[in-house]
Amino acid sequence: MINRVYFQTVILLLVAVFAAGCTGKKPEKKPEAVRETAVAPVIGQETLLLLKDLEENGDYINSQYFPSLIKASIVFEELGMNNLVIDLRSPDLFSRGHVKGAVNKNFSELPEYFETGIKPFEYDKIIIVCEDGQVSSYTTALLRMMGYGNVYAMRWGMGGWNKTYAQEGWLKGSSGRYEDRLEIAANETPAPVGMPELGTGLAYGKEIGEARFKKLFEDGTGNIMITADEIFSDPGKYFVINFERKDKYDNGHIPGAIRYKPESTLGFTDMMSTIPHDKTVAIYCGTGHNSAFASAFLRLLGYDARTLRYGNNSFMYDKMEREKSTLSWLPFTLTESNDFPVVK
């Protein structure tokens, strides 16, 4: 998977040499843009070692388990069973109301908590909860890549648990205010430029991963999301990735957004090296759940990736409502929420 770009480059070079030898002529000078795309992008050794380690340990990001979302209704049905619910919200929000039996933990505390506070694999499921499901999706992606294969993010967060939280979160965050600025024309994927240097100074994929996970948990979650207002105020400031089906992308996307296929982007160096690492990467999908999982992977590899809060719901909600049946959009409504009790 990670050597595909090198293989393609070698083939191109061999073809060029063979052609020159047969004709006895010097090969024609290629246009500048073509020659640039034939040059192998710069990918550091640490990056390759980390990607190899992630691939050998299940390639979670491209596996059938991605994304690891669980409905609030299932969490409710399994209360009292061998599951652990971890609530990442502030102590104040937690004290106002939480899922029965949940423990309140800060995001940065989780590595130590999983190592010394609990025995993670004694639980059938460990369910991560937050306000709207995006921080928990980001967290779940990191924990899954660290090897905790029984971790799930509760879809919609507390907004899916109880309608009170839905009205304060998802319904307030949903808007159609930027529908008139959507773009229809497809934007081309840029030429590969390389990937970020990780700079850990370590020599093995496993220890490089451990260092990167530690750094991300220390960094916290304060800058893992971006809003529609921020993007639409200056779309050119960001490298915008649409992480949706092609028909949805073609139906309307953020100006300048480039569609990257969910199943063949993350972990593939020939595609990831086309994502610039000198700009903030804003990645979005329908609800922000999948893009939060994807942003965790990109941030692990050194990108300044941020998931669009509430996804398409945050800027084209009314359009999603109108075209829900034709394009299977997922606009958040109160039917996605429940009236499950909370403990105060």
How would you characterize this protein structure?
Strand 2, helix 5 and strand 3 (103-104) form a beta-alpha-beta unit. This protein has helices at 4-23, 32-37, 45-56, 72-77, 91-96, 110-117, 134-145, 158-161, 163-168, 170-173, 205-219, 228-233, 246-251, 269-272, 289-300, 317-322, 324-327; strands at residues 69-70, 83-87, 103-104, 125-129, 151-154, 225-226, 238-242, 258-259, 280-284, 305-308. By secondary structure, the protein is α/β, with parallel strands linked by helices. The N and C termini lie far apart (49 Å). It has 3 domains: 4-40, no CATH class; 61-173, Oxidized Rhodanese, domain 1; 179-327, Oxidized Rhodanese, domain 1 (3-Layer(aba) Sandwich), CATH 3.40.250. The model is unreliable at 2-37 (pLDDT under 50). The strands form 2 sheets. The chain has a 5-stranded parallel beta sheet with strand order 1-5-4-2-3. Strands 6-10-9-7-8 form a 5-stranded parallel beta sheet. The radius of gyration is 22 Å and the shape is globular.
Keywords:
40% helix; 344 residues; 10 strands; disordered N terminus; Oxidized Rhodanese, domain 1; single chain; five-stranded parallel sheet; 3 domains; alpha/beta
| Top-tier CATH class of the largest domain | Alpha Beta
Structural class: alpha/beta
Helix content: 25-40%
Q: Can you tell me the CATH topology of the largest domain?
A: Oxidized Rhodanese, domain 1
Shape field: globular
Largest sheet: 5 strands, parallel
The CATH superfamily of the largest domain is known as Rhodanese-like domain
Average pLDDT value?
A: 90
